[in-house]
């Protein structure tokens, strides 16, 4: 299923005048709108292949309908999304769920949809059918060398598959840790993990990066071997220049100041990428911006400031990805809401009056500094986001168009009602 | 598989002298040991039928081996546990996972093992195959009357099955809630839930109780309709004298003072029962006493004090149950560790010098009050727990005996390696 | 020091055209702007007398300058604030810090500034010089009757003073609790507190309310006797129809869903009032809306919905107050930022499309429900707030005017640099 | 006031037989008691000079009586404590609260009591009377060079005073941070702090260490510039071999796994010292072991294992100190309870069967690993602690002796009732 140009046009035509009216209002009161729009157009957020079906919890999973049945259909879904919002031009695969026999076919398919392959994701937190060694007690940290070897080889295989697809990064999220005091010698677990990571690192192609993702807890409930940014940074530093820390917004202890972490990782030149989602309690994996939109803005505020200070390219020097679990919403609709929230936060961060902020900070004018950030956050910049989408060939209101065209109904027609996306 | 008397005897004989030596030491320095032993003997902790196989997380599940394949084998497992520790004389069933065609057979089987049927548990947090209505958006709270009706009827069916087995209580844990702001009108959700509960309440036999379990979050990640003790108490009060609050140790926000909640619920005569487990982050469902044993003791301290103040019977006036998820341990070993930790905490609470404590409280002698509680907690009362077990016909060291006899190996021989317990 | 009309006029004249431009844009796209403006004009937020000087932490306090030296000057400060924003038409006193010899003079002074006296606040969390009994181990909960008596009499004295000033409510925030396990018998502490509250309740004039404020922790670090909304509601119900729960946004455990609590308290007809502030970690007492503005909006969303469902008057049927600690900002500037954030959140909540939301909820259209709330939150309604202020005779941009006129400099000139506000 | 030998002897004589009875029981069942006793005797915990009077919260402070009026009396208090428990042989000073004109006199006084001077503490979180620059917006991080310079010079002055007293370490706890988003550029604040620390580091004598203490929040409520162990480690690594991280148990986000942090810092050879206390909510500064004794044991378990792995000397290679706030208990009694809890946890950690634990870890025998730790924790090792105290010349039951001799009454007689310890 593909979005037809005339469908898009009809939608945009209908909304054009209202949009223009709002856009020119924003332009009247916001400096540098044109620059912001250009940056918004360049900004692409990777979509994880496992977020195209409904996720669940340990208590159960409620299937959606018309979920993609294979990698081809997942690519089709992301292609559809990208056609609608022109900000989802990358897909992130998960091996073995998305293992493919013929990568060049898959690569061609993606190209047709204007998609590239974002960071590859390995999986050593589950046992696959027929797998020789079990990850019950960890993978790269395991006390048994044979388990570590299997996990290392799996990661190298993921790199191999990624190379074939044109990806240039590997994301390693390790569930490794312990559920009970005494289970693990933390130091030894760290050292074994480091040795394993070194072997994977050695297999990285020259231009590849490896992202070390940290997480405070779950599925291990006492300790996690890459448990916070400090641990991830230790690993990244010990590994070398291709290793970076990856920040997932849901992977922190309660009340953590994530924007400060982001700033410091940029300072250390070790921030590698981002997993967007939102949460109230733990790794809730909710729609980005649905719970704490101001935090999302503050994070982007640090990203923009820190990347600009280093002369980094916003669009390409960090890996941007959504990592959410769509338990009760239509996955495509949910992703559209996440992308929208991310783009708004990015636009707001771009609109911050940096010079005034620096001056206020220099003078410890706390009231003024707050006013400057709130001014950016309270201003309704959605017209800029819509304009960027429009100029890039997308829909002014992607979600409305998706619903108006009853695209999910089409997908169900094609794929059936009872499908379950691989990996879910 | 059943534990033979001669196996028990050989084990106890071997350990008897050492045990006696320790017991008499404790008796020398602890007042009222005999009374404590008697109370320990009477105290029985219900075992949930779903805790006999390995549990998992949303990221995966690592199967154990020799897991019970049906309700009969679950009863056999609890029977084995009870033969070992003589403190696990009840099983708590979960419908539909444990639905039985012939309840009288099952009842006889349980009787053979010296087990009674604890509170029945309904399930409206998952969709069962072939189920007409979906619980994706809640059950007793659902906006659609047909869904509510289905959930109400399920609960009434659970009561019916419980009556046939001789159970006398229904535990309702509702996953109902919302994942996103706006999804739910909290007030209306409360009212609909209340109406549904009233219908279930009306179906309770005269001598039955219903336990309203609360939980702060998960599987819903924005709001839960029975989210804390205050909400549960509201429901219990609006329902009537047969309705009570059930406290699960893992169902609170970070840092909650659970012992205070217990005390106040006893004050209001609305504490109904307990789900034991331990946790560091959320509803981690770890072995009781494995993370915060002092908290477990403090809770028992309130239970003993509060029940004694009302002249309640410790063993029978509240429902005591373990509710844990054995993700990486052998379920039977894990349960033995939980029961042991609970019995120790109970013994310590029984040994608190109540009069001295009251006096210290009266005089605001905070240092002394702390000394009194720490004296009880720091004293090694394991010999009293072992003695109670021994006198009741159990093993002095259940876990050692279980391992020495290689009972799991026996179970695997009987049941096979690849079994998965129903409901997991 | 008083704001002159010509100063206000000059300020408003200068900004008028820009404001009009923005206002008409909002009006074009937002239904019922006129009704929203009217409600905003009627809405008044009480200012606590202790928030007019710089607050501190246990580690120290950094004085501001030109702080009010007495109650008269505190009233002057609130008067100035109210002249600027026309939304701060009430002051909330704290006894003994604000005890006055001649209430009618004070009353006249307040009237001159257009201020009324909001809820009175008692203080039994500190020992005052020369006080007979100490509150070291609590006040209304104390084991010693003489201490309770002193605390009860103090509260009754506060009522008496409030009556003389025309206040109609008493807020009781109790620090009572315990720092260590064992220190307190929770049940007895509750009962003693209840008995004490009953005596205070009996002294309430016919039209008065008493607000029972809860708080999870601090200054007691193990238990608090009125620790959460459930406990406060128990007290309020046991006391009678004049007793209500007061919600302070910073008084919860991490991750609490405050908007749900608000909704349920409204359902139970026991929500009495609100203390606004914001926080990241505990009772941080930061500027309202400075950390989690979306949460503030969600709370107002419940307030508007719940009050409308009961036909309550937004402006008068609940007590609205700021309770913050201005540790590093100019107190008046900080209060202006808080009031602005509150008014924006209120305006956004008023603009929610209620009918569409109800429909989405009815149909479990979670995506749509989120869109509706985000539409309200993302729309820039500041022009409506400014218009309401303007029509009521205030400044279009109060903070700018305050700074342009260098009003703090004026206050320092009048009062001196080294002043410390009473109670700080 | 000094403890007389005959008073000690009388106390010990009375308790000797009971003690011997318990000791020999422990010796019968616990291997290597003699080695444990020796290590307990060598272990000394520093007492902070500011913990000898009653502390308070921002809401108030309830004075005790007989508090030390000057440094001499603080030393007297620690001397008394040390005479009682023989484990408090060091005092940690806080400048300017404990600044002395004549260090050699003070040094002699301490020597008379058998005390040495532990790490010195600087204070840049408060403004002292007459101080030129204010720390309202930070000290070492401040945007104004003059403020940084003042703070640097203060730290160097503290080193100078410490040298005169024979101390060999400087502890820097920085309150520096921000209360509101936007207030601070995190990166610049980090860099300025680093530059300032480098100047202080350069002033360290050859054999000195500097401890960089981290804290998650309070008194700043949005960000802290040395906010977690990762940030502290970054600073320590950038400074050089004399710089170390200091862990205070109360300075973490909710649910942090502190024992893992300890283990990793030891791995990195950057753990410098410890501040003991306990807490339920934040930096509650309660008596060590009063809330989570098992956590305290688990931390010591990592300390013993990690230090032994490096061949470190338990008694001298890390800085051990209590840092608590005695808000409602007699400070000396409170300190005795803290020291006792620490010694018990240390003894338990020493008694862990390391070889068996390693084996269980190697085999992923999680149940066994838990049993091994619980065996150590559940065993009542208080007789070993008492024996160590006794052999070192202290009291078998320090708290009882303190109360029996009515030592506080004596101190009040000497010093008066209304004293307030300097710095409180």
UniProtKB/TrEMBL annotation, chains A, B, C, D:
<feature type="domain" description="Xylose isomerase-like TIM barrel">
    <location>
        <begin position="104"/>
        <end position="284"/>
    </location>
</feature>
<dbReference type="InterPro" id="IPR050337">
    <property type="entry name" value="L-rhamnose_isomerase"/>
</dbReference>
<dbReference type="GO" id="GO:0016853">
    <property type="term" value="F:isomerase activity"/>
</dbReference>
<keyword id="KW-0464">Manganese</keyword>
<keyword id="KW-0479">Metal-binding</keyword>
<protein>
    <submittedName>
        <fullName>L-rhamnose isomerase/sugar isomerase</fullName>
    </submittedName>
</protein>
<keyword id="KW-0413">Isomerase</keyword>
<dbReference type="Pfam" id="PF01261">
    <property type="entry name" value="AP_endonuc_2"/>
</dbReference>
<dbReference type="InterPro" id="IPR013022">
    <property type="entry name" value="Xyl_isomerase-like_TIM-brl"/>
</dbReference>
<dbReference type="InterPro" id="IPR036237">
    <property type="entry name" value="Xyl_isomerase-like_sf"/>
</dbReference>
<dbReference type="GO" id="GO:0046872">
    <property type="term" value="F:metal ion binding"/>
</dbReference>
